[in-house]
Amino acid sequence: MISQAMEERVEGAEKALRGAVSARWAMAAVASTALLLLLAAAAERRLPAPRRAPPNADAFDGYRAHAHLVNLTSIGARVAGSYENEVVAVRWAVQALRQVAAHASPHNSLEIDVHSASGAFPLTFLDGMNNVYRDVQSVVARARGRGGETSRARRPSRTALLLNCHYDTVPGSPGASDDGAGCAVALEALRALVAAPRPLRHDLVLLLNGAEENILQASHAFITTHKWARDVRAFVNIEACGAGGREVLFQAGPHDPWMLEVYAGAVPHPFASSLAQELFQSGLIPADTDFRIFRDFGGLSGMDLAWSSNGYVYHTRLDTAARVPLAALQRTGDNVLALLQGAPASPASPTLIFL
Question: Among all residues, which ones are annotated catalytic?
């Protein structure tokens, strides 16, 4: 009887010890998670200081990008089909591109085109649908290097990079982050590229997209009907579901791994998430971007970049230029410009080099 009582005490002590060890591990896990969240929050707040650059400099100027953003959002909501979107915003885009062209170096040129098209396409979005559109507009620009130009017949095909953003908005929102900031970043990155004191080796096509919120219409119109679409080999799409913070590379592919090599080796502030890609492409998130259109209807590989901080402003009247930090514009602009300029990390991977 004494031996059995002692065994029960020992067993009870062992159970208590195991419980204490389990509790310590649980506390350690909670503490580690909290530390990681604190580190992530600190990294989120650590953004590069905005910088100024002369109009003919090949560096990104966050203040100039912010001026583009203020000018665009001053129009107000820009719903596809409205006067604000089809006339005023188009006028803004053309004028901004003319300013970019005015600061191009003698080695580069910029061609501007206002594009309108009609069409239809199927989408497996939500419950599935056929999206029919008529006369949707976009403003497109193509930057070329002047040196060593060959005739169109001899020029190799699919040697342009597409940079896409959209200036239309949902009703009632000034759309500063979604996606006026993307357009501001794209315009300033384009200016820095064409201002460079050397010719571009490969063309850059900038699509200022006028009908994304109507479920991706203008990107389909461009990739299926525009005269420059057949020359595009890859794309970079700038999006947002929040204002500011670090933009995340949340979709890439489906082919051409050299793009990720360029991203990893060239951009100064890389931030990518394969988990975000799995979640987004699983269908659990009821949203989509022009990435799908360029991939499915253009047969292209590309990258999707987006801000997600302060998501409460997304698609609301609160999405104003005042809520987009200058430092966030600078960070995204530095990354996008470096990506456009970046050389391959491995000489054997790509044949296309952007300078």
Answer: 212
Residue 199 CB coordination number (10 Å): 18
Query: Is residue 178 within 8 Å of 239, Cβ to Cβ?
Result: yes
| CA dist., res. 162 & res. 336, Å (int) | 12
Q: How far apart are CA 336 and CA 129, in angstroms?
A: 33
- In 10 A of CB 79, how many CB atoms? 20
Amino acid at 352: L
Question: What CA–CA distance (Å, rounded) separates 38 from 289?
Answer: 30
The pTM score is 0.83
Class of residue 259 by CB neighbours under 10 A (exposed 0-12, middle 13-18, buried 19+): buried
| Location of structure tokens 């599935």 | 128
Cis peptide before 347 (omega within 30 of 0): no
Strand partners, 138: 115, 209
End-to-end CA distance of the chain: 87
Query: Which parts of the chain have pLDDT scores under 70?
Result: 1-45, 125-127, 147-158, 280, 282-286, 343-355
Q: What does the alpha-carbon distance between residue 189 and residue 71 come to, in Å, rounded to a whole number? A: 17
Tell me how crowded residue 295 is: count the other CB atoms within 10 A of its CB.
19
pLDDT the model gives residue 344:
36
Q: Which residue has the tokens 């060959």?
A: 150
Listed in sequence order, the residues at least 6 apart from 282 whose beta carbon sits closer than 8 Å to its beta carbon are none
3-class secondary-structure state, position 252: strand
Distance between CA 191 and CA 231 in Å, rounded? 21
Token duo for residue 139 = 């403003």
142, β-bridge pairs: 111, 205
Contacts of 159 (CB under 8 A, 6+ apart): 202, 203, 231, 233, 352
